Each structure stands twice: as C-alpha cells, then as structure tokens.
Amino acid sequence: MSPADLELRHYAVLGLVSEAAVKALDYFNKSDSLGVTMKGAQDWLTVADGMVEEFLRARLAVIFPHDAIIGEEGGGEASDAVWIIDPIDGTANFAHGDRNWCISIGFLLNGVPEIGVVAAPALGEVYAARRGKGATLNGQPIRVSGGSDIARACVELGWSTRVPAERYIAVIGRIYGAGASMKRSGSGALGLCHVADGSTDAYAELHINAWDVAAGMVIASEAGATINDFFAGTGIAKGNPILCCTPALAGGLREITGIA
C-alpha cells in the first residue's frame, strides 16, 4: 500500500467519524432513545453502538471494499489491511449521561497500527494520528507530559471483569505505594489519548480488547508515548494487557503493573 493510499484512508476516516459523531451525539442528547441493555456484567449496550458501527461499516465497505473490518458489535476477521471500530467506547458513561465517551477507529496494515481517529463529540474533541506524521487534538499537535517521577505521576487504571478483582486491587496498592495518584474515567480509547495530550502520565489495563486501543495506540505513540506490543500473539482477536506511558516511567510501571 502506497503512502497516498494511507493518506486517502486517513482523510476519509476523519470525515466518516465526523459524520458518525453527529449521529451518536444526537442519541446521547435524547436519553429516552438509547434503548439501554446489558451484554454481561458491567457490559453496557445502547442502540447508538449498533447504529454507529453499521454506519461506519457501510461507508468503509463502499470506499475501501478490499479492506477488512472488525467491530465490537459485529465482529469480523483480520486481514493484511483491517479497520478496527469501537462505535461507542465508554458505553456505561454514555448510558448514564457522562460526557466521557468516544468513537474510536484504527487502521492496521500487516499488523501495524497506521491510522487512528478518536472523536469525543460531547467534549468537542477529535484526536487523530498517522504513523510517522505526529498526533493532533482538534488539529493542534500534542505531546506526552514527559513526566519522569512516579511519585508525581497521574496514572489511569482501566478495569475489566475479565480479570479477577484481586489482581486489580494488588496493582492499585502498588501504584499508590509508589506515590502516584490514580484515576479511572471509563474509556480506554480516551485513556490513551489523555496520555498523548499530557493530561495523564500513564494508562494501564490488565486486559483490554483491540477495538478499545487500535486508534489510541497510534495517537499515543505519535505523541511520544511508550506502549507495549499489544498486537503480539492473539491480541487482535482476544485482547491483551496495555501499558501506555511517558518513556521515563515505562520501566517502573512495567514492574508495578506486571505488564511486559
């Protein structure tokens, strides 16, 4: 695939996500239309999730018919060129009227994240990046905080029912024991973006799915973050742990979280 082909995909997905954001925000502002259900324990679903994914799938299939598509709601199979979609990341927030949610779409070529766009329309934010071209928030370049002292760091720890609570509690204890502050905002994609823009110093989660990180990994990496090799092994199909942080904190946080 040529640089021009990647550039076309980058600009195309920026436009598609902009359209999808308008649709999702309309649902968010009409709480009686959300049709909230549960897929499992603390695994929320709204009609907006399906609508946004169907819209993006349909448009991508027309524009790039030879690319594969994987979505949180509709599944799919990987190929050399694949789009990975989370139509609403932070659905629990979305369903509760919390503005911290986003649309996340990443593009992988031969297993390497190349393009990432994360739109948080309720916050008026669009993060975007293409590998080797830098990362932006609302069109302006962003960089990681550069934090190097764990005792002054702000770490976000994501949470998943797929990992025993005891493991999370142990990591929380080690983070506080190292002197860091900690938060959880409920969106892995935005968690990575907040490392990218320097508003936090690290994001970690003991298990997360590919659609939560495919876009944010490009954005954070292009902003200067250190990230583990999430797509190693079966990461694209079954998920993996994620650790994303300023380079100087990487060694210490690997020990604290146990994420290699």
Brief overview:
This protein has 260 residues and is α+β, with helices and mostly antiparallel strands. The chain has helices at 3-28, 47-63, 91-95, 165-177, 188-196, 210-222, 235-238, 250-257, and strands at residues 37-40, 43-45, 68-71, 81-89, 102-109, 112-120, 125-130, 135-137, 140-141, 154-157, 181-183, 202-208, 226-227, 240-245. It has two domains: 3-141, 2-Layer Sandwich (Fructose-1,6-Bisphosphatase, Chain A, domain 1); 150-257, D-Maltodextrin-Binding Protein, domain 2, CATH 3.40.190.
Total beta strand runs: 14
Which strands sit side by side, in order, in the main sheet?
A: 3-4-5-6-7-8-9
CATH class of the largest domain reads Alpha Beta
Might you state the CATH topology name of the largest domain? Fructose-1,6-Bisphosphatase, Chain A, domain 1
CATH superfamily of the largest domain: Fructose-1,6-Bisphosphatase, subunit A, domain 1
- The average pLDDT score comes to 91
* Biggest beta-sheet profile: 7 strands, mixed
Binned, the helix content reads 25-40%
Relative strand content:
25-35%
